[in-house]
Design brief:
single chain, about 400 residues
Length: about 400
């Protein structure tokens, strides 16, 4: 799942903080602002801030009305260690590039969540010794950026590692306790049955630790899906899994369920169009689901040619679209109507002034200009007493209205 994320890494890291450090504050030196409503964090699409030709978030906000972005991905350092980096390469502690992007978003009234994990790479749950040290590493990210929301993207190969998943779920529980009001989502692979064996084991780990995030989201793509009907079917099946795992009724399960799609052509060649997104959005809103997001804003633009030669790209969708088409579905999920593009006004032509009026008594030679019946005319050759427009083969050439 999300193979394009892992192969195109990112950048940022930080000094290790003690486990269970200070609670989230509303404003600090790293530029934190008052939190948005949770619905915006639930609607935030993924954006790689340092790879995959990142789009300008300010332009996206202006064009679509989007206010929240899910920045991806936090990993352990490629060289080893239990400290947070962007994509395994750029320490969070010394980051200025992502911070600058966050500042831009917040200056326009928006905010970000940060996603940890993703497909591939070494996750902190794998590298850190236990849940407490894993939480301490993530706390550095929360404190650095003044976060109000965080996403645990638990998928291959990490979710096949029982110890790593125990660390991740334990860390999520600690962060939830130590940062009151923190919005926490957990994202994992989707299958036709809802989620696979490893996804179900992750849910059982959460139950055993007494951890309930704002939502558990599945990614119904890269698994033989075919359009929106197969995705909503998977969401229905996942709802049943949540009910049976946690003892929830259907409505409670939907209130803790999320969807994370892939716009356009998926890694395995599935196609999800704007119409598919609308169908899943209708399903999510009608069932009062907690989250609707997608991978990714880096891909929310048309390739050249539009189908990208039948290939999947990390920087465009491989389907016909306008820039920001898919982001608008997230905006709708947040309960906001996307702005209507302002049409380019058609310039009013400057009226052409009329030449001197044609006279039946005058002699005209080639190139002479006159006006007649509110049109200008140019003589093609010598003429007298031949009215303009009498014949298209005559001596006059129509130069348009005046």
């Amino acid at each position: 799942m999300r193979r394009l994320r892992a192969c195109l890494g990112a950048a940022a890291a930080v000094t290790l903080a003690a486990a269970g450090t200070t609670a989230l504050v509303a404003s600090n030196a790293s530029g934190a602002t008052a939190a948005l409503g949770n619905r915006w964090y639930a609607a935030a699409p993924y954006l790689m801030p340092l790879d995959n030709d990142p789009p300008d978030p300010a332009a996206i906000m202006d064009a679509t009305g989007l206010k929240a972005f899910q920045l991806a991905f936090i990993l352990a350092p490629n060289g080893g260690g239990c400290s947070p980096t962007w994509g395994g390469t750029a320490p969070v502690g010394s980051d200025t590039a992502v911070q600058s992007m966050i500042n831009t978003i917040r200056a326009k009234g928006g905010d970000v969540s940060v996603s940890i994990g993703g497909y591939g790479g070494t996750k902190l749950g794998q590298a850190c010794a236990d849940a407490a040290s894993t939480a301490a590493a993530y706390q550095q990210v929360i404190t650095k950026y003044g976060l109000h929301a965080i996403d645990f993207d638990l998928e291959e190969p990490e979710y096949e590692n029982t110890a790593a998943i125990k660390n991740e779920i334990g860390a999520a529980r600690i962060l939830q306790q130590n940062n009151p009001g923190l919005y926490v989502s957990v994202t994992t692979a989707g299958t036709a049955d809802g989620t696979g064996w490893f996804g179900k084991q992750m849910l059982l780990e959460a139950k055993s630790q007494g951890f309930t995030p704002n939502n558990f989201s599945i990614m119904p793509f890269d698994g033989g899906f075919n359009g929106a009907a197969s995705q909503t079917s998977a969401l229905t099946n996942f709802n049943s899994i949540l009910q049976s795992t946690f003892g929830w009724d259907q409505a409670t399960a939907y209130a803790h369920e999320g969807f994370s799609g892939m716009n356009g052509r998926s890694d395995t060649g599935e196609i999800f169009t704007q119409a598919d997104f609308q169908t899943v959005l209708d399903y999510a809103t009608s069932h009062n689901m907690d989250r609707f997001t997608f991978w990714s804003l880096n891909r929310d633009r048309q390739c050249s040619p539009p189908d990208n030669g039948g290939r999947t790209s990390g920087t465009c969708s491989s389907v016909a679209q306008n820039d920001g088409d898919f982001a608008k579905y997230s905006v709708k999920f947040a309960g906001v109507t996307p702005p209507t593009p302002t049409p380019t006004p058609t310039p009013t032509p400057t009226p052409t002034s009329c030449k001197s009026a044609w006279s039946s008594a005058a002699v005209y030679t080639a190139g002479n200009e006159v006006s007649y019946n509110k049109h200008n005319w140019k003589a093609k050759w010598w003429t007298q007493n031949e009215g303009p427009g009498a014949s298209e083969w005559g001596p006059w050439q129509d130069e348009g209205a005046c």
